[in-house]
Specification:
Elements: E1 4-6, E2 11-15, E3 25-31, E4 34-38, H1 46-55, E5 63-67, H2 73-76, H3 79-83, E6 90-93, H4 95-102, H5 105-115, H6 117-124, E7 135-137, E8 143-146, E9 149-155, E10 164-168, E11 173-182, H7 206-217, E12 223-228, E13 230-233, H8 236-255, H9 262-281, H10 287-311
Parallel strand pairs: 4-5, 5-6, 6-7, 11-12
Antiparallel strand pairs: 1-2, 2-3, 3-4, 8-9, 9-10, 10-11, 12-13
């Protein structure tokens, strides 16, 4: 089974196989004999990333950068393990993420505290520390070269304070991590892509997130390389859909803020909202199938909304 898709502009979308097929992506960018990864998936993903390099006959020595959009472990948990195989690569990450890469103890303990040690071992595998000298802070506006293209870092809070997006002028695309939403290919219809916000703990901030999206639109992007999942055309229409859904998720949480079984009720309300929205979008999948596809997101989204409620 092929684990990656070659897109235009020297970009490859790699299925990290986290939780289920085609849920979380990492990206490989190639240009004029150099390569870089944008996000790594988990520790368990690393053999897949190396396999892609092997199949494409890319030398491990030619991988110049590992760029992390943010340090949530489904996107960055494999960075330490991957770096061991790439002798010339440097990791770029938001300044808030640097200390957690050097000493990942708090990241590990935080995940185990919320999801349990069994989840950590089965779904994430491990989390290796990274030598400080191999980490570079990705500041807002910084640019790095890759072959004949330039990649620009943009601070993009809202989903997380430690989130950056990468602007690629060559493709007029944004490597967006979680900032430009979740859009699974199973929900595509003649009406286009279905999209919703991953309101992951613990730094969801709806107002800031909407401002971030508006700022990114000023670049006039043509495409977004989503962590969940793959590339979609990105334009004001779909951006407005995402902003509306950020407001809808927030409203659902506020309505149920005082519920006795708040987490369960928010989770169920989010599912009801999404199923209603996919029906309007023309999705023909059985609703039980849809519920299974959404399952990996909704509990996490509900937890993030609860943290946000408690911070108000």
């Amino acid at each position: 089974m092929k684990t990656y898709n070659d897109l235009d502009f020297g970009v490859t979308c790699i299925d990290t196989a986290h939780i289920r097929k085609e849920m979380v992506a990492a990206y490989l960018i190639e240009d004029d004999g150099e390569a870089c990864f944008v996000d790594t998936g988990t520790h368990l993903t690393v053999p897949r990333l190396l396999e892609v390099l092997d199949k494409k006959n890319i030398s491990y020595h030619d991988v110049k950068h590992i760029i992390l959009t943010h340090i949530h472990l489904d996107h960055a948990g494999g960075a330490g393990q991957l770096l061991k195989h790439l002798p010339n690569a440097t990791i770029f990450v938001h300044k808030r993420g640097v200390r957690h890469l050097i000493d990942p103890t708090k990241l590990r303990d935080g995940v185990i505290g919320v999801y349990g040690e069994l989840f950590f071992k089965q779904c994430l595998g491990d989390l290796l520390p990274i030598p400080e000298e191999r980490i570079v802070t990705a500041n807002d506006g910084d640019e790095i070269s890759l072959g004949n293209r330039v990649l620009k870092f943009i601070n993009t809070p809202g989903h997380a304070k430690h989130h950056v997006c990468i602007w690629d002028e060559k493709s007029r695309g944004i490597f967006s991590g979680d900032t430009l939403g979740v859009s699974y290919r199973e929900f595509d219809t003649e009406n286009g892509e279905f999209i919703f916000p991953p309101t992951t703990p613990i730094q969801f901030d709806p107002e800031t997130w909407i401002n971030t999206i508006d700022s990114l639109l000023e670049l006039k992007p043509e495409r977004a390389y989503l962590a969940h999942y793959c590339m979609i055309p990105f334009h004001p229409h779909i951006a407005n859909k995402l902003k509306n859904e950020i407001n809808n998720f927030s409203a659902i949480a506020q309505k149920l803020a005082s519920s006795k079984n708040r987490h369960k009720e928010i989770t169920l309300a989010l599912l009801d909202h999404l199923l209603s929205s996919t029906k309007k979008h023309g999705v023909a999948l059985d609703q039980n199938v849809q519920s299974k596809l959404f399952k990996g997101d909704l509990g996490i989204c509900a937890r993030g909304l609860e943290v946000w409620l408690d911070q108000q």
